[in-house]
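Second attempt. The first submission of Renalase had a stray character pasted in from the spreadsheet, which I only caught after the job came back as garbage. Lesson logged: always re-copy from the clean sequence file. Corrected sequence (330 aa) follows.
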Amino acid sequence: MTSTAPIAIIGTGIAGLSAAEALHAAGYSVQLFDKSRGSGGRMASKRSDAGALDLGAQYFTARDRRFAATVQQWQARGWVEEWTPSLYQFANGTLNPSADEQIRWVGKPRMSAITRAMLGALPVKFSCRIAEVFRGEQHWHLLDAEGESHGPFSHVIVATPAPQASALLAAAPKLAGTVASVSMDPTWAVALAFEKPLDTPLEGCFVQDDVLDWTARNRSKPGRDTTLDTWVLHASSSWSRQHLDLSKEQVIEHLHGAFAEMIGCAVPAPAFSLAHRWLYARPSAAHQLGALADADLGLYACGDWCLSGRVEGAWLSGQEAARKLIAHNQ
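This time the job returned cleanly.
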């Protein structure tokens, strides 16, 4: 079953950690790598002067029975809680209550609490950008951006956004080609904090206009800091793509203005603001890839881009990568 060499997993978002959990439970040794300073990927939350802010995934739903069962376990452990916002939709210049009654979940006290808990005590190297995956005589090795080599590894699972994954899968041209065909959309995210609460019942809003796609009252989520009235705004994919290289100050100005026009109440200058650019926020289209594998080589790829682009899709893809690896080694 297990090789003396561990399995390398590149990426500590939901997909990578889902695969790591499944492999660890099956008795395999894993070693995780991430270019960031902490786990989460697009589930990451940013600590700021206005408290912790969910700049990436805003919430998630659970439709697949396997994922729903896992979310129930997360809830029992205190990692997640249901979020029941006063939800609106904005279209054609009109703001109306939304009839959407899906059950929405959020990490508590921030979205990154989920991946931090999933990671647990698993071995991980943060601030380590893997630049190349190459094969030695018997095992895989990883080369990071600083020129340091890591290994040996029996298998490698690449759990990064598709544009980053394709380069790391060069040793498996068919896998790399499939991944390279997956396009992903960017998203500019802006956080605004106000000293006095805005005079609106709105706590979440699906927006259909040129600039905005989504806005949420961050402090309406369970366990969040309520000192300031914090809001997270996501720009639309098309606007983000057109303004990819705009300065953060200009992005804040544009999104603040669009937010003020939409919300229907006085919006003063924020006491605090920040912008974050997600280059690969979501896949441009849904796929049915599950997880990609060259089992004979021992290379695998997983991520939300393999399925729906949703948190659930990332978790399911990680599970599928682990299942394929385990099945091939039985």
